[in-house]
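Figure 6 in text form: structure in, sequence out.
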């Protein structure tokens, strides 16, 4: 018997994440019967590769979703707020990559390795968490399952890809300018990114934390269903093209040994253990780039806390941090 085929729409198909969604649908052999590529009017008419052919990009309108089963949105929060309702009204389930619906109480926020059961509660929209939250929780959920996490201190080292394709190109251009002895041109990001790093370029909130940092706080609590977890995040933009890194310290109810943590992570879905202390070989963004798994290593006791562990993780922001997670969520809907 032939398995069901789905009509899938990709909103924001020409963006950095949209391109990765197309590649991921193809790589994972998602049961796509028909694929609609949607973007702004200026992108309409372009063609993008899929399964050996070329598909045209159509202009996104309120009428774009007739007959669509699943709509994978990656066009920014504004577009999601404007058009997701039309997709739902047309009978599609929306998997949204933006921040538009993440903290809506009626919208599940899902990472399949963390809380797949939450998908069942959707009312037409399922949200993808922020990239840094996804990467962190894929690494922490196996530890949380052994002993509930009570406190997290995390510092992120976020690549240019998190700010989009234009930011990646700006890093390339600035690097060339700096090496040629020229003054780098700053236009996309607020500061020079080549040979520099700076506090994440999202608005600072009243409590002193930036918007990106508070996403990690609020989204983690929502997905782990625990509003009491104490979380302090520091988000930093670094001169790396692709893949985010995070330094994480966790405090748990029961002290886990390093060996216990390492064994749990070694068998965890979506995790690849990279923890060679003798060779001083640990996760690196360069090696996480293009990889589906989150790389986890530098697992050690936190010397400042009796029930703490420290670790270092890297994950591809465009894949597990965005496109791959969205496709995996869509896969949950086919079961």
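Output sequence:
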């Amino acid at each position: 018997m032939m398995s069901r085929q789905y009509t899938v729409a990709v909103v924001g198909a020409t963006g950095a994440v949209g391109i990765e969604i197309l590649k991921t649908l193809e790589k994972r052999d998602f049961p796509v019967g028909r694929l609609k590529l949607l973007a702004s009017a200026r992108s309409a008419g372009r063609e993008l590769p899929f399964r050996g052919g070329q598909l045209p990009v159509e202009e996104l309108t309120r009428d774009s979703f007739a007959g669509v089963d699943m709509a994978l949105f990656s066009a920014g929060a504004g577009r999601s707020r404007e058009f997701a309702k039309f997709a739902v009204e047309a009978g599609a389930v929306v998997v949204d990559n933006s921040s538009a619906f993440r903290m809506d109480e009626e919208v599940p926020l899902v990472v399949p390795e963390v809380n797949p059961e939450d998908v069942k509660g959707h009312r037409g929209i399922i949200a993808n968490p922020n990239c840094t939250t996804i990467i962190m929780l894929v690494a922490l959920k196996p530890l949380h399952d052994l002993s509930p996490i009570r406190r997290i201190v995390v510092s992120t080292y976020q690549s240019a890809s998190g700010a989009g394709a234009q930011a990646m190109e700006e890093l390339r251009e600035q690097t060339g300018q700096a090496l040629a002895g020229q003054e780098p041109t700053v236009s996309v990001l607020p500061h020079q990114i080549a040979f520099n790093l700076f506090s994440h370029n999202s608005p600072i909130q009243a409590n002193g934390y930036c918007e990106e940092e508070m996403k990690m706080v609020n989204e983690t609590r929502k997905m782990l269903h625990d509003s009491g977890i104490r979380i302090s995040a520091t988000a930093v933009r670094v001169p790396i093209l692709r893949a985010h890194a995070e330094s994480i310290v966790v405090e748990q109810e029961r002290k886990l040994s390093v060996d216990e943590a390492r064994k749990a992570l070694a068998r965890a879905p979506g995790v690849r253990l990279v923890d060679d202390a003798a060779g001083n070989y640990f996760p690196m963004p360069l090696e996480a780039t293009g990889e589906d798994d989150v790389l986890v290593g530098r697992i050690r006791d936190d010397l400042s806390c009796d029930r703490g562990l420290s670790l270092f993780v890297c994950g591809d922001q465009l894949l597990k941090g965005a496109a791959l997670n969205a496709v995996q969520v869509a896969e949950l809907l086919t079961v």
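Caption detail: The longest strand covers residues 149-158.
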